[in-house]
Specification:
Helix content is 34%, strand content 17%. Helix 3 (71-81) packs parallel to helix 8 (187-195), helix 9 (209-225) runs antiparallel to helix 10 and helix 13 packs across helix 15 (396-406). The chain is of the alpha+beta class. The protein folds into four domains: 1-30; 35-239, Biosynthetic peptidoglycan transglycosylase-like (Penicillin binding protein transpeptidase fold, Orthogonal Bundle); 297-587, 3-Layer(aba) Sandwich (Beta-lactamase); 597-686, Immunoglobulins (Immunoglobulin-like, Sandwich), CATH 2.60.40.10. The longest helix has 30 residues, at 131-160. A hairpin with a 5-residue loop joins strand 6 (297-305) and strand 7 (311-315). Mean pLDDT is 88; it is low at 14-21 and 681-700. A five-stranded antiparallel β-sheet has the order 7-6-17-16-15, sandwiched between helices. Strands 21-27-26-23-24 form a five-stranded mixed β-sheet, with no helix packed on it. The protein has 20 helices and 27 strands.
Length: 700
């Protein structure tokens, strides 16, 4: 037969064989779907893992690339499991011949001939360990090599290798057994992960640490024989301890990550704008703060880059796993009363409308707006002062006067148009003047976005969670002039007690809602806006839930962890600096506003409180309204003289019910009934804290 015809016959035969193999591969494709059913991974802005989620089968199966694994592990895996991996087509003929020869010599199977490709085939399609199953695995191995290539086969093995319990793959095992990514595997750790898939149920280090150690040491000895590790390294690796417990998977930003994962396809990679290092640091800070806060008081924290709207840290609760505080709730998205935190926007809108100037004088006095007669947080009134001073001291009457001039509907509409919605109650409820003092609902996430407008040019930059999301158009709230003037006022607010006066310049505002249900602190510098909320998830009152003494110190501790980006000072030639024009020299109440003559009202404790105290502990007493001086009485016995701020302290001498009464200079009074319990079995049974009074029925 001529050579040319022979060549054609050979070529035709090979083509027919290839076509047949292709047809078989297409008809009987390997089951690769399991490779795609991986854990959903939520990662930070640098691609580092924040929180993975188990697959629908309940396993941890995390994707992994070869360049994300320590090179020593890959070298060791191939040396131990398949040393000719890089040149055989999926089945190692030399290993097969060796296994057959040993079986003939010994009359039984002594060694296997499985390659990594064949092991992957078995992981994808488990079968009984029979000769026919081995043949199918061999054919599947050829298919896998053809479809995936060498690197693809190796990456698939790294994803599916059983590592004990519900752990699959090298990345899940490295995180669970060692607490770090596989790129940092030591020699001893790599050897354990090579040994584990050989018998994952029998070698689990948390259940059988001695077996796991012996298996690891055998792998290390083979590594030394293969020249992968020297004698000193072998001794050091074999002396390393074996982990005896599984570590939890990374669990940063749990509420945020869960919400983001719900929007992504299962098994996908979910990028975020969070900074993992900052997130974990603030989670530790939050847990430390909870150690000083009595349950069920909780907190929420947000850190945002106000120039871009990118969220850098999201603390939805102080401790996700604390059922006493309902820690699984995302309190950064809970609707709460904002207290005084909306006041800066009322001032800024008044500056925009040319109704007022920071230097405008106003009289802080008791006024009645129809049936509404607000007082100040600490009681009393301060007389004439500038609006600048009034905002820095967070006085209520000047803010309500401005809101009355602007109109509460206009304020609410302006905030809503800028992306800061206010929750007003039942549908159709119109906003009223109490909104400026917290008589509406708002979320921390929306307040942080709004304060970003004060930190910038007056426009609200929509917050961003996804780094791939294109920036959205900022929504105007204030003019740049008014925003900067308001920011300059807030930058001069005195620092909280215990925070050094020196340090970076931070503009901030605190807020405390009615009956001490919410404590707020919102602040910003030249780069970031930080928001802190304190309160109870059930909305009950708590004495520590206040802005100045509770939330503000936390705010400053957070800023100490951020890069120092100076807040620009207001230039001397700014239109809202200096003295006001003559037309804005003084802000007078509208004609419909009249002087109020209400009597005093007790602000704390609330009616029916049950207070859990230690013997010798004092209870703060606060009242508002009425004419000074105030006198306090407990069961009709007077306390010592009080100051002009309508505050006092009472040290109970015994358990039981008591009636507290405050009397002003005109003889008008208000009273509440409370019950005192000493800390101990009774208080524990009640499930209360000294700073968290619960509403109960007063004494008969």
């Amino acid at each position: 037969m001529p050579a040319r015809r022979l060549a054609l016959w050979i070529a035709g035969g090979l083509a027919a064989l290839a076509a047949g193999l292709f047809a078989l591969d297409s008809t009987f494709p390997p089951p690769l779907d399991r490779l795609e059913r991986t854990s959903t991974l939520v990662v930070d802005r640098h691609g580092r893992l924040l929180r993975p989620f188990a697959t629908a089968e309940g396993t941890w199966r995390l994707p992994l690339r070869l360049d994300e694994v320590a090179p020593f592990y890959l070298d060791l895996l191939i040396a131990i499991e398949d040393r000719r991996f890089w040149w055989h087509p999926g089945v190692d003929p030399l290993a097969v011949l060796r296994a057959v020869a040993q079986a003939i010599r010994h009359g039984r199977a002594v060694s296997g001939a499985s390659t990594l490709s064949m092991q992957l085939a078995r992981l994808l399609e488990p079968r009984p360990r029979t000769l026919s199953a081995k043949l199918v695995e061999s054919l599947r191995a050829l298919q896998l090599e053809w479809r995936l290539g060498k690197r693809g086969v190796l990456e698939a093995y790294l994803r599916l290798a059983p590592m004990g319990g519900n752990l699959e793959g090298v990345r899940a095992a490295s995180l669970a057994w060692f607490g770090h990514e596989p790129a940092r595997l030591s020699e001893a750790e790599a050897a354990l992960l090579v040994a584990l898939p050989q018998a994952p149920a029998r070698l689990r280090p948390d259940l059988f640490p001695e077996r796991a150690r012996r298996a690891r040491d055998r792998v290390l000895a083979k590594a030394a024989q293969a020249g992968l590790i020297d004698a000193a390294g072998l001794r050091a690796a074999q002396a390393s301890a074996v982990p005896i417990a599984r570590r939890p998977m990374p669990f940063s930003a749990p509420q945020f990550a869960e919400r983001r994962a719900r929007t992504a396809p299962s098994g996908g990679l979910v990028p975020t704008t969070l900074d993992g290092d900052l997130q974990r640091t603030l989670e530790r800070l939050a847990r430390a703060e909870l150690d000083r806060l009595p349950p069920p008081v909780d907190l929420a924290i947000l850190v945002v880059e106000h120039g871009t709207g990118a969220i850098r840290a999201w603390i939805g609760s102080g401790d996700w796993g604390d059922p006493r505080r309902a820690g699984k709730l995302d309190l950064a998205r809970a609707v709460r009363s904002p207290g005084s935190t909306l006041k800066p926007f009322v001032y800024g809108l008044a500056f925009d409308a040319r109704l007022a100037h920071p230097g405008t004088l106003v009289r802080d006095q008791a006024l009645r707006f129809d049936d509404y007669a607000p007082g100040n947080f600490e009681g009393g009134f301060d007389g004439d002062l500038s609006l600048r001073d009034a905002l820095q001291r967070s006085l209520n009457l000047p803010a309500v006067l401005l809101a009355d001039r602007l109109g509460p509907v206009a304020i609410a509409d302006r905030l809503a148009a800028a992306g800061v919605p206010l929750v007003l109650g039942p549908e159709g409820t119109a906003p009223g003047l109490p909104l400026v003092l917290g008589g509406v609902g708002v979320r921390l996430v929306d307040l942080v976005a709004a304060y970003g407008a004060l930190a910038g040019d007056g426009a609200v930059v929509p917050l961003r969670e996804d780094p791939a999301e294109p920036p959205r158009e900022p929504a105007p709230l204030l003019s740049a002039e008014s925003a900067r003037a308001t920011a300059a006022i807030l930058a001069e607010v005195p620092r909280p007690v215990g925070i050094p006066a020196q340090g970076r310049r931070i503009a901030y505002k605190t807020g405390t809602s009615h009956r001490f249900r919410d404590g707020w602190a919102l602040g910003f510098d030249g780069g970031h806006v930080v928001g802190v909320w304190l309160g109870r998830a059930d909305g009950a009152a708590c004495a520590v839930c206040n802005g100045p003494g509770g939330a503000a110190p936390i705010l400053f501790r957070i800023f100490a962890l951020l890069p120092d980006r100076p807040l620009p000072a207001l230039p001397p030639d700014h239109p809202l600096s200096g003295s006001p024009p003559p037309a804005l020299a003084r802000l007078e109440p509208a004609r419909s506003v009249r002087l109020a003559a209400d009597g005093p009202r007790i602000a704390f404790p609330v009616e029916g409180s049950l207070l859990l105290l230690s013997e010798g502990e004092r209870v703060p007493l606060r009242a508002s309204g009425g004419r000074l001086p105030h006198r306090w009485l407990v069961d009709d016995r007077p306390l010592e003289a009080t100051d002009r701020r309508r505050s006092a302290q009472w040290e109970p001498q015994e358990e039981g019910f008591a009636t507290l009464r405050v009397v002003d200079a005109l003889g008008r009074s208000d009273a509440v009934s409370v019950r005192i319990l000493w800390r101990g079995l009774a208080g524990a049974a009640a499930g209360l804290s000294p700073a968290s009074p619960a509403r109960t029925r007063p004494a008969p």
